[in-house]
Every structure is written in C-alpha cells, then in structure tokens.
Amino acid sequence: MYLPQLPLSSNYHLYVQGDVRIDPSAVISSGVILQADPDSTIIISANVCIGTGSILHADQGTLEVEVGANLGAGVLIVGQGKIGAHACIGSLTTIYNGSIEPRQVIPSASLLGDTGRQIATVSSVTTNTASIEIPKTPESSTTTTQSESIEPESIQSESINGQVTSTSVVVSEDAIKPDATTEVKVKSSTSEVGISVYGQGSLDRILKTLFPYNQSLNSPPPSE
Fold it and tell me: Is the pTM of this model over 0.85?
C-alpha cells in the first residue's frame, strides 16, 4: 500500500482550542491540533501517545482517548467517539464519528467511521436493440432461381444382368452439334455410293464390241 510522506513541519508547538483535558503523563508530539467545538470535549487519558501532525476535532459530543492508546503520525479523528485502552492506530488513518475497541490494531491509511451516508448507486440502463432484417438483393435471388431451375436429365440404361440403373447425364448443345454433322456426312456418302448410272450396261456392251482387247483391263466391277 502506498503511504504518502508526511510533510516536514517547523512548528514545535501544540495547538489546543476549546474544552480539552490532557493528562500530565500523556505524550503529545509537535504539530498536533486538539480542537473542541462548543458543547464538545476532548479527553486525553494517561500514557497516551499522539504522533506528529495528528488532528483531533471534537464535534457535537465527547471525543475520548483512553489509557495507553497510541495514535500514529498524521491521524485524523473528527466528531465524537472513543479510542479504547491500549489501542493502536496506524499513521494516516481517518476516523469519522467512530469508536475503536480496546487493544485493537488499525492498519495505516485506514478509513473508519460512520457509514450512515450512502452514495446512490447508478442503476444499470438496459437498451433493447431491435433486430433488422436485411432484404435479399435481386442478384442473389436470380442466381438462386437459375441454380434451382437447372436439373440434370435422367437416362435409364439396362445393364448386362437385366437391372435398370438410372444415370444422370448433362448434355450440352456444343456436344450435340459435332455428332449431328458427322452423322449427316456419313449418310450422304453412303447414299452417293449406292446410286447407279442409267444406261451403264448399254455403254459397256458397245465398248466391248468396239474395243474387245480392252475388255480385260476396263472390266466393270461385278454387280452385287
């Protein structure tokens, strides 16, 4: 605990005012103030020791320090009360309208006394926060609708054991176009091969008659 240093004082006198009764055997240090207001009394009993710079101020009653009590330096006692016999009050202690039991030890820099005055406690203020719902933007709703509308087509295929399994296949237009083009080309080439020329047989017979020696070289392919 931090204890401030007592200021040095060049005043070696004892200040007494009002109805103050001091026993001759009491030891009072320099710079002590003993002040009793009207209709009030201070009583310092035998073998009492009061440290430097202590202040005893009696107000509206009697302030008594009993036999053998010890008050440290810088003690402040205000109001009315009693310091019990052989009690020890630490330095820089403040007592306001209070009493100390006999042989009780009070630590330094303590604050004792009347607690009748209460400080009003500030009541905690609670604030209700209203919840605000943020509406969805049109972009997010459009994206969600598009993603939900796209569904893969289900194609059923028969396995070797005769069990039907469903396979999810997504067919794009880019994948269909090359296959369609290839299929058209194959069909056209096949149709071109199967076309026969009208009058081909008559022309072959005329050529055989005119050029019989070229028959083996230019013989037409056998008809199926």
Answer: no
